[in-house]
Design a protein that fits this description.
By secondary structure, this protein is mainly α. It contains four helices and no strands. Helix 1 runs antiparallel to helix 2 and helix 1 runs antiparallel to helix 4. 19% of the residues are buried.
Length: 100
């Protein structure tokens, strides 16, 4: 389930770079909170506490209740960094699983 969540979130973040209606960004925030929450729980279950804390922090960043007004340019940078980071972590996990 983790690869599906990471790919889905990465695609959603990259689509945020396009000029989308405001409702799309609200859906992305909700999906990000749920997705990062699941990733945090899975990281906690495999005893990777630092990764779980990172995912919890990202869930708090995207939480839809108290919005952070970072500006479009900064959010675009955040979206690109997170989308790229999720894909890189997915590739690292695939390579690690291949070697074991």
């Amino acid at each position: 389930m983790t690869p599906f969540i990471k790919i889905t979130l990465a695609i959603l973040f990259f689509l945020c770079l396009l000029d989308m209606p405001y409702g799309y960004y609200q859906i992305v925030r909700l999906c990000a909170v749920v997705g990062f929450g699941i990733l945090a729980y899975e990281a906690y279950c495999i005893e990777k506490g630092n990764l779980a804390i990172l995912y919890i922090g990202l869930a708090l960043l995207f939480q839809p209740f108290i919005k952070l007004a970072l500006g479009r340019d900064i959010w675009n940078i955040v979206d690109v960094l997170l989308g790229t980071g999720l894909i890189i972590s997915l590739i690292i996990n695939i390579k690690k699983n291949r070697n074991t």
